[in-house]
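Suppose a colleague, Dr. K., hands you the sequence of a protein chain of 337 amino acids and asks what its three-dimensional shape might be. Before reaching for any lab equipment, you can write down a predicted structure in token form. Begin with the sequence itself:
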Amino acid sequence: MSDPLYSLNIKKGGGFTLSVQTPDSVSEFSLSVDQAKILNRRLVQHLAEQDRVSNKKKLSDYLDRLMVTVPSAEVWVGAHKKERLALSIEKPSFQVVQPQELLMSSIPVTQQLYQWVCKTNPSLFLGAMRPVERVSWFEAVRFCNSLSKLLDLEPVYEIKEDQVWWHVERDGFRLPTEAEWEIALALGSPKGGERSLQREDLETSSESEVSFLEHSGSDALTQIQGQKLDAEELSQYAYFAQYGKGTKGVASLKPNQLGIYDMLGNVWEWCWDWFGSYTPIPKIAPKGPEKGTTKICRGGAWNRDVWFLRSTCRYAERPYARTSNIGFRIVRSKNDS
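The predicted structure, expressed as tokens, is then:
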């Protein structure tokens, strides 16, 4: 049975009539000016709610297609002590246990999605399907909260001026931790499941065999001759300085084995963590230091060369910084979805 159709009409000589049309009949009712105002206000509210529900459904469907599962894992992160290309801030390597599955967006947040949620687009390199950039870390966490509210999820972050608290029990969207980001990168390579074994094998390897590049899609361990990196192979998965002049549309290159695009290159990606030194102690779902002055970014960018695309490469930036080579991607805890 179809819903009745309503129309509000101005009467000649003043006043209003409300017409109600059903499949079987049409009825008219006289209304005073005050009654018409009340009815009009309620109709506007009703239409706005219909739009909200419709937009929520569209957004929910889009995000359902966007999110991919990152399995729970026990993985080595950080650079091994013999990795000659690694900086001291990338060492030592240590084991991380990620006990729960994670939902991660298969692409960085696009300008289209950011505009939809925040009603603004701060990016320098404009394009609906390019990654949003020139967003600070604080703006990224606010975006996560706003997106959660649009979908009637409980926002993960409590924000008061320049302080942010993460409520882990809440079900909304958030930034990945540095460990979650590196685990998604490691498990996304064909040899990702063997990464723990690979790290143990390094203990008995010669120094010349240890220098390698791990990247987002092809073999997890790509051998390097001296300082020469395999940029040609990497360019199938990552967009970086040798090829880039500004950002590129997301998902333009190959995904990794988990179906995640642009893990390396295009834009650096904000992580939750404050920057801090690594320790060799194994950790369960680490979230980084409790305080600091700079936030971790991962993955390299369109204006960085291949050295910055190593899986262990760490970059830190002030949380208020807005640059044309930093964006972000979103995650949700799988058990809360």
